[in-house]
Amino acid sequence: MSIRVTNISKSYGAQKALDQVSFEVKQGEIVGFLGPNGAGKSTMMKILTTYIHPDHGTALVNGFDIDKQAIDVKKSVGYLPEHNPLYLEMYVREYLLFTTRVYNIPKSKIEEVIELTGLTPEAHKKINQLSKGYRQRVGLACALVHDPQVLILDEPTTGLDPNQLVEIRELITTIGKKKTVFLSTHIMQEVEAMCNRVLIINNGTIVADQYLHDLIDKEDQIIIVEFDYRIEEAFLQKLPYASHVKNTHGFVYEITFTTSTDMRPKVFDFAHDNTLKILQLARKNKNLESLFRELTSPPLS
Ligand code: ADP
After folding, report:
1. I need a surface site. Which of 44, 106, 226, 266 has the fewest CB within 10 A?
2. Strand partners, 224
3. Kindly report the CA angle at 137 between 135 and 139, in degrees rounded to 5?
4. How many angstroms separate the alpha carbon of residue 155 from the centre of ligand 1?
5. Is residue 296 within 6 Å of ligand 1 at its C-beta?
6. CA of 38 to the centre of ligand 1 (A)
């Protein structure tokens, strides 16, 4: 087991941030820690990385106790904090050298992580000359330089533009093939793009713990498709298994299918056969979205 959390509670004064939280993360999993802002995600991550202490409860990271074996926990964990604090005046290699010295590890690791995180073309620059996407890569390189077994990433994709977002997601997925990854986000799509399991937290309490493959609706699926001009909804309704078609905005349509077979190739063929142009095509996981809304929306008064 890479992470085992047992009954952790933490308050800041009168504000309860975590309330008897328990969960486990197995070796090799990429687990999304999903919850609205203020749910307690960062607090949990700071506890797991030994930056703050819980009021009650225990946690083991890579088999080490966060209270009694904090140094071993730190050695086992690579942490990318929410706002990725970097020394902007330093050069990339200089900053990584500084990090290797802190961890007392050979500097030969630096070139390895530069390559692994795709930093090579920008590695000669000062950090303040880098885009937000490359700054995140520097943060990830720092988190990886001591070759930890577990990576804890607090909102790793926040503030990235769409291209950077895709690149960082791909990088995290690649890293996740070799390491256990526990990442927080308030964006459901991030979980769908990177994780095999999701823990949903709301008001300091775990409200769901699900494998993504269990969440994929066995009966229904929604395909979002954008064409380059307007099409009659009734026309799209001719697609096999299409039960509902909705023009959500512009030329974007949401088509519900009553089958578990991936209908994206069929939509593509349909467009091609009818000389329609597709600008975007995506399958939406209906269940994760509805589960997240249901479990984290404030009750209607
Ligand atoms: P998340 O990461 O999910 O946005 P946090 O763990 O940052 O949530 O915060 C959980 C709750 O604890 C929030 O209500 C937040 O305002 C509060 N909180 C977090 N850090 C502090 C702090 N240092 N002092 C007081 N309250 C805090």
Report:
1. 106
2. 254, 282
3. 75
4. 14
5. no
6. 5
At 240, is the secondary structure helix, strand, or coil?
A: coil
Which amino acid type is present at position 230?
A: R
**Owner of token pair 């091609």:** 272
Tally Cβ neighbours within 10 Å of residue 258. Answer: 12
What's the CA gap between 90 and 112, in Å, rounded?
A: 19
147 contacts 116 by C-beta, under 8 angstroms? no
With tokens 């099409």, the residue in question is: 231
Separation of alpha carbons 100 and 194, rounded Å: 28
**Element housing 5 (H / E):** strand 3-12
Neighbours of 146 (CB within 10 A): 19
Note whether 288 and 196 are within 8 A (CB).
no
pTM above 0.70, yes or no: yes
| Confidence tier at 135 by pLDDT (50, 70, 90) | very high
Q: State how far the Cα of 277 lies from the Cα of 65, in Å rounded to an integer.
A: 56
Q: In angstroms, what is the C-alpha Rg of the chain?
A: 22
pLDDT of residue 102: 86
For 26-82, what is each residue's pLDDT tens digit?
A: 999 999 999 999 999 999 999 999 999 999 999 999 999 999 999 999 999 999 999
Residue 14 beta carbon below 6 angstroms from any ligand 1 atom: no
What's the CA gap between 133 and 139, in Å, rounded?
10
pLDDT one-digit tens code per residue, 89-108: 999 999 999 999 988 888 88
List, in sequence order, every residue forming a beta bridge with 11; answer none if it has no partner: 16
Is the shortest distance between the CB of 199 and ligand 1 below 6 Å? no
Residue 218 confidence class, pLDDT cut points 50, 70, 90: low
- The answer to whether 278 and 284 have CB atoms below 8 angstroms apart is no
Are β-strands 278-284 and 221-227 bridged in parallel, bridged antiparallel, or unpaired?
antiparallel
